[in-house]
Every structure is written in structure tokens, then in C-alpha cells.
Description:
The structure holds two protein chains of two kinds. By secondary structure, chain A is an alpha/beta fold. Chain A is built from 19 helices and 18 strands. In chain A, the strands form six sheets. In chain A, strands 3-2-5-17-8 form a five-stranded mixed β-sheet. In chain A, helix 2 links the parallel strand 2 and strand 3. In chain B, strands 1-2 form a two-stranded antiparallel sheet. In chain B, strand 1 and strand 2 form a beta hairpin. In chain B, helix 1 packs across helix 14, helix 4 crosses helix 8 and helix 8 packs antiparallel against helix 11. By secondary structure, chain B is mostly helical.
Amino acid sequence: MFRWCVWGFVCAFLTSCGSGGPAGAPSASEKPPFKPIDPSVAVFWDRQTTETGALIRTLVDEFNAKRPHGLSIKIEHTGGYSDIFRKVSASIQAGALPAMAVAYQSMTAEYAQAGAVADLEPFVHDAKSGLGPEELDDFYPVVFETNRYPDFGGKMLSFPFCKSVLMLYFNKEVLSKAGFDAPPATWDEFIHQCRRIKAKTGKPAYAVSVDCSTITGMIFSLGGDLCDGKRTLFDSPQAIQAFEIIETLAKEKLGYQITPGSYDDETALAQGSVAFCIRSSSGRTNVAMLMQGAQDQWGMARLPQGDPANPRTVLFGPNICIFNTTPEQQQAAWDFVKFFTSREIGVRWALGTGYLPIRKSAADDPGLKKFWDAWPYNRAAFDCLPFAKSEPNLGGWQEVRALVEKAETEVLAGLKTGRDAAIELKRKADAVLSTQ
Amino acid sequence: MIGRILLYIFLAAGMAATTFPFLWMITTAFKTLPEALSPSLHLLPVQWQWRNFIETFQAAPFGRYFFNSFLVGTAVTAAVIVSSLMAGYAFARLDFRGRSLLFGVVLATMMVPFEATLIPNFAMIRRLGWYNAYPALIVPWCANAFSIFLMRQAFMALPGDYFDAAKVDGCGHLRFLLRVGSPLVKPALVTVGLFAFLGSYNSLIWPLVVTSEDTMRVVQVGLTVFSGAEGVRLHLLMCASTIVILPTVALYFAAQKNFLESSLGSGLKG
């Protein structure tokens, strides 16, 4: 007994002191047999909380009730995206995974390196439980294509889950005081409106949340692109112009940077301190809550464009990846994914959360039409879906995103000109991608 | 006299600066969301929102989280006190080969960041079958280098005469440790216990990683439910934080005397 106690203590000590090395990580080429983390149910690691968390739990319950046979889905809140990434990475090392988890493309690419992610193509095209040609055609191509990974032979390693687009939020009252009755349609108009608002109020017009997606959206909306193969295009005229717009905002004090990671821009918009903020369309519910029902005082519109006749914006939002566990777990996970992305559930999810329905046929849904009729700006984000474009699914892109945010911060702080920041970003980003 | 007034003004300003965030947290727990997010630093809510507390407890099973936090914190504290007491005494008072080297190895583990050990520790927990169970929350934290170091220093500060006298009376190491040494290093022991409990009570990432059921989760994990993908429910988060912080504040006041004594660096009074 004493010996067991001593061994127990030694084990505890070594564990706490971190003496254990990483358990044999599978190489990229291996397909390890990952055990289900709970064989009795199909576990789904998600990040939704509060009202959206309650809604997804309701949907899971409905799915389970409709499915008397086979594994049930069990949803587990696993913190934020970084927590989920950490937990999945640790679980890969431990050899046991949930049936599925929410994941951004960069996360999925990392899991795929360890052979942990299932190719969804066989599920999608399965004669019995897959999606028929009509159903496949019903999805917006962009939401589908963003889940194919060039670094893994173009395989579909994840499925669209919560999609949103980058939008311009505006405070009508502030705009109106400066003499404008509509938000800007072009970036030139945006700068013009910011200048007028600054002149009238003496305050910056735009609260800037430093985020790679904002720069990406600006580049897309100016008609540019991010990559040509593994070569970035941050030295293109459109990318330089995007950074120069940021430079103008900073130099003329038309915009100011909010605390990173906060939602101070939405708060400032709701309080009428600024006229604009640029955020995901999924932020609609949060802004609505902050505005306390004063729907006549704010709105959301597509991003200002380089050429309004050919609009573009950025598509983002997490996907679901199904892990390489047992066929039973994978089938249950796929059945849930199919259920969740059906037209009916997609509409309910969109109405309850602010995310976008990803099927074209959702536009005919009476519930959604009613929602769009209730407030003119409710439809704005959905209308952006046909021309939205996602960021590339390249290995190393997560690192490039951090470089973009650093470049934006440097321009906002006046440390670099827009052009210099863009050129240097191009050099650094290319170096990152070339090592992948 | 003027110097004294200035001193009081200075101390009052320091006190206000340190207590303001706590007061802000408590009063924000009673505000609406827009008021909580207001850039103004006003303390008192326009209208007291008592309902926030109901909403907070409806958002997550905080009762269960508190039970788990106390259970885990108490077990970890007890284990750390035992392990650091014994290891600290051994490093301070026992002569054995490789003592300095072994102590150096123990101290070196302080240089290993938590992030580096997260994955191997999690893999070990999985293989031991402790995922989503109390041992996963308790066992990895039963010993730590800092506590061992603190106890070693406390034992080294004891005059050797105590041990010699006890030895003459026929006292062995274990009896000396339990009967004589422990009472003499009580302030250090209380400090070790305080740190162990607070460390366990405040940990977030590890409990989040090794548990999945609400029945196994702790209060800090409960606080994450108020931070969503598209915003933070600051009023509810502050409400939950106010409740969560109470036990740690109470514990600090209960152990304050011993903690200060230990901080001053000596357990002996002349």
C-alpha cells in the first residue's frame, strides 16, 4: 500500500512538473486510428454561448429526437476558438477525438497535417445520406469552395457552418447631423463623409477594429485579390490603396484604433460617438442589443467599393470538421451537419443569430422574408453573399493574418506609410508562405 | 503636520486607485448592458438591475461549479501542503547524495511554461482514464516547485539547535517534522496553502481542456459563457465575477496575518 502511495505521489509530481514528453505525434502521412472521446455519443465541440448557445442546444435536441437509431449528438461548449484548437491538438496527441468540432480553415489545415480530419467528399456524394445534385446546387458556391484545401489535393475537409460577411455599420443620426442621408457607396465617399463628420463634430468618424478581415475586405472591395498561388499580392495597387486609406484615416484623425479584442467600436457606434464601424454581419444582434431597439438610428450596408457596379466583400465564419474516428461517429456527425445546413434549420439559425443562411432557396422562406421586411437593412448581408469571397486556405495563412494586422497597426500608429507597410507585408508574407 | 496630511492624501489616492476596479466590478453587476459598456467611469447604476443575478445563474449551473471549485481547491491545497512540507524539509534538513542537483531539477521545472506541458499532460490524463474526472483536476497540481522552494527556505531559517535538541530527546525526522517543525513554519505553510488554493480556484485553461461535462466544470470556466463570438455580456460577466471573487477575498482576509508574516521572510520572532 505504502509503495503504491509513493508511486502515486511520484506520478503526480512528474505530471505537475511537466516531465512527460509529447506522446508520439503521428506524421503527416499516417492515418492513426483515433478513438472517439466518448463512444456512446457523437461529441460536438462548439463555442456558442448565451442565446446562440441555447439555440444550438435546442437544434441538437430536435435532431436527436428525430433520430431514434444511431448515435445521438452531444454538444459541449469548449471555450473560444483558440481553446478549441488547443483541446483538439492535445486530443490528437492523446489519440482520442470528438466526432466533430467547429474550426476555421487554418485550424482544419493543422488538424489535417496530423491525419485527423475526414475527407467529406464521400459523405457529400453518398447515394443514401449525401446531398443530391439539386441540393448541392442550392448552396452558394463560395461557401462550399472555401472548404476545399489546395494543400491537401483540393479535398473537402470541412463543411460550411456559420457564415457571415464583412459589413459597414453606420449611425444614421451622426450621418444626418453631417448632412448625409445614406452611407458611402465608394471609398472616396467614405473618406469624404469621415472628413465632414470630423469637421462637424470634432471627433473621429470611424472606430477601427484592427483585423485582417477588414483589410482583406477593403482589398476585395477595391477589386484586388490576396494571392496568386503561393505568392501574395499585397504590393498590388488595390492592396496599397487599402493601406493608404488607413493612412489617411490615421493622419487626419478620421479614425482611431479601439482596444484589440474588444467590441468598443460597436459600443461607440451605439452611443453615437462615431458614425462607422466595420464588422462581421453576425455582429448585428449585438449592435441591435446595444441600440436598445432604436432601429431607426442605425443601419448596415455593404462595404464601400472601388467600383459599386462590381461589388465584393469578404466571407468568413467557422466551418465544421469531422474527425477520423469510427464510421458510426462520422455518420452521426455528417447526419447532423446535413440537418443543420438544411434550408429550414439554416433559416432558423440565421434568424436567431445573425449568421447567414448558406442556401439560395432560403430567400424564398416566408419567415426570412418577414424578417427582411421588418427592417430594410436585415437583408443587406444576405445580398452580399453572391459576391463574397473567402480568404485563401493556404498553410501558413494564419501567420500571414497576424502580419497583416501588424502592418495595419503600424500604419494607424503613424510608424509607416501605407505604401511602405504594404510592400514590407508582401515581402514577409511571401517568406512565410514559401516555407510551407 | 503638513507632511502627515500629504502622506494621508497619498495613501488615500493609492487606496482609491486599488479599490476602484473592485467597486466598478460590483456596481457594473447591477447595470444594463449599454450602461456597463459606457465609456463613463460612473459607479452607481442609473437603475439597479437585480435581475442580472437571476440571469447569471440561469446562464450556467454556478452552484455545481462552486462545489467543484471548492472540492478541487481543497484537495489540491491539502496535497500541496503535504508534498511541499515533506520535500521542503528533505531539501533543507536531510543530507543525501545529489540533493543540490535534485533541488536544481525541481527549480528548473519552474522554467517550463504551462503551455509546453499542456499537451503531454493531457495525453497522460487521457491514457490514465481521468478525462472528465476529479483526478484530472487535482492530481497534476499536487506538487509544485515554488511551494517546495518556499518550504525549504522556511526550514532553512530554523536554527539547527531545534533539531539537535529534539534529536537528543529521541525524536526522529518524521516526528520532528510533525511535532516541532510544522508549527514553527506555520506562516510559510499558510502562504503555500493560500497560493495553492488560489491557483486552483483561478485556473481556467486546464479545467476547460480536461473536462467536458457541466457536472465537472469549475467557476472560472463558467465565466466564459458570457463571452460570445460577437460580443461580451459585460454586466452579467461582472455579476458572475463578483460572486466568484467573494470566496478568494474571504480566504485572503482569513489568512492575512500569516501571509504577511511569511512575506516578511521569517517565521521566528526573537
